UniProtKB/TrEMBL annotation:
Upper lineage: Bacteria, Pseudomonadati, Pseudomonadota, Alphaproteobacteria, Hyphomicrobiales
CDD domains in UniProt: PBP2_CrgA_like
Keyword tags: DNA-binding, Membrane, Transcription, Transcription regulation, Transmembrane, Transmembrane helix
Protein's UniProt name: LysR family transcriptional regulator
GO molecular function: DNA binding; DNA-binding transcription factor activity
Keyword Kinase (UniProt): no
Length: 321
C-alpha cells in the first residue's frame, strides 16, 4: 500500500510539474513530497525526475513509469469502485470549482436535493472569478461558462444557459442619448468585467453579431469589476450599462428595474458560446460520486428552466462511463 501511495504522489508531481503544487493538492509540505519521491526512486533503483532550482523534468524512465503507472492506478480505482458499488452508494468528498454567479444560479439551488439523494457525499465548493487548474488545485468538477479551451478535459453540458445581454436602469437610459446601434455605446458609461488584466484603463471590447455580421466596439466606463453581483448593483443604481448573461438579471428585467438594450443583436465580451459546462479529468473511468453529481446537475437544471432562458436538452460532448 505504501508503494501505491508513493505512485499516486508521483503522478501528482508529474501532472503539475511542481513539488509545491503537488504538495498543496495533497495537503503535504514540499519537503514531505520530496522525501517520498526519493523513497520511491530508491525502491525502484532508478531516477524518475531530474530536479533543478527552477523546474522538474521527468527522465525517460520517469515518462514510462508515469504512462504505465497511470493506467495501473486508473484500473485499480475502477476495480475498487465497481466492487464497492455492490454494497455502497456514492460517498466521499467532491471538490467543485465555479464562478460565484454560476454557482448561485446552477449549483446552489440543486445541492439540497443532491445531498438528500446521496447522504454519504459531501461537497467542497470553491468560488472564484477565474478558472483554476483542476490537477494543481485538486478539483474534481469545474463549472464553466462557455469559452472552453482545455481539450485534455472531459466536458458535459449542464444547461444551455442563455445569451449575454446589455442592460441598464430606466433612470440611466432616460437621462442619456438613445442607443439605436452598437456604435452609440461609445458615448455611454459602460461598466465592464476586466479580462486577464487587459484594458485596465477602463476600456473593453464588446462584440456584436447581427445577421451573421460581426463587429467589435471599444467601450469605456468609470468602473471595472470582476464580480457579477456588484456589476448588477451598479446598474440598478443607475451608474451605467452592463453586459452579462441574461439569467443574472432575469428577476430585475421582469420587475422593470432594469431594461434590455439592443435586444435584437447578439453581444458578448468574449465568444458567442453561452453554454454552462461541467469539466473534469478525462479518464477511462470516472468515480461514481462525480458521475452522480454531474447527472444530478443536468437533470435538475433542465427541469428548472429559468425565466428569460431558452433551455435546450442536455448534450454530452464527451461521454463518460
Amino acid at each position: 500500500m505504501e508503494t501505491l501511495h508513493m505512485m499516486r504522489l508521483f503522478m501528482r508531481v508529474a501532472d503539475s510539474d511542481s513539488l509545491s503544487a503537488a504538495a498543496r493538492s495533497c495537503g503535504l509540505s514540499p519537503a514531505s513530497v520530496s522525501r517520498q519521491i526519493n523513497a520511491l526512486e530508491q525502491e525502484l533503483g532508478v531516477r524518475l525526475i531530474n530536479r533543478t532550482s527552477r523546474r522538474l523534468a521527468l527522465t525517460e524512465i520517469g515518462q514510462l513509469y508515469r504512462e504505465r503507472g497511470s493506467a495501473i492506478l486508473s484500473q485499480l480505482d475502477e476495480l475498487t469502485d465497481r466492487v464497492s458499488q455492490h454494497q455502497a452508494s456514492p460517498h466521499g468528498v467532491i471538490h467543485v470549482h465555479s464562478r460565484v454567479s454560476v454557482a448561485e444560479h446552477f449549483v446552489i439551488p440543486v445541492l439540497p436535493s443532491f445531498l438528500s439523494a446521496y447522504p454519504d457525499v459531501r461537497v467542497n465548493l470553491w468560488l472564484t472569478e477565474e478558472s483554476r487548474d483542476l490537477v494543481e488545485n485538486n478539483i474534481d468538477v469545474a463549472i464553466r461558462l462557455g469559452n472552453l479551451d482545455e481539450p485534455q478535459l472531459a466536458v458535459r453540458k449542464i444547461a444551455s444557459g442563455a445569451p449575454r445581454i446589455l442592460f441598464a436602469s430606466p433612470a440611466y437610459l432616460s437621462a442619456r442619448p438613445p442607443i439605436r446601434c452598437p456604435e452609440d455605446l461609445r458615448s455611454h458609461n459602460c461598466l465592464s468585467w476586466p479580462l486577464d488584466g487587459r484594458f485596465e484603463d477602463g476600456h473593453a471590447i464588446w462584440r456584436f453579431k447581427d445577421n451573421d455580421q460581426t463587429q467589435e466596439v471599444r467601450v469605456r466606463g468609470t468602473v471595472q469589476i470582476n464580480n457579477t453581483n456588484l456589476l448588477v448593483h451598479l446598474a440598478l443604481a443607475g451608474l451605467g450599462i452592463v453586459l452579462l448573461p441574461i439569467w443574472t438579471v432575469a428577476g430585475h428585467l421582469s420587475a422593470d428595474r432594469l431594461q434590455r438594450i439592443l435586444p435584437d443583436i447578439d453581444v458578448t465580451p468574449t465568444i458567442f458560446d453561452h453554454q454552462i459546462y461541467a469539466v473534469f479529468q478525462r479518464s477511462s473511468y470516472t468515480p461514481r460520486k462525480i458521475r452522480a453529481f454531474i447527472d444530478h446537475l443536468v437533470r435538475a437544471n433542465r427541469s428548472a428552466m429559468p425565466a428569460h432562458c431558452d433551455w435546450d436538452q442536455d448534450t454530452v460532448l464527451n461521454d463518460f462511463k
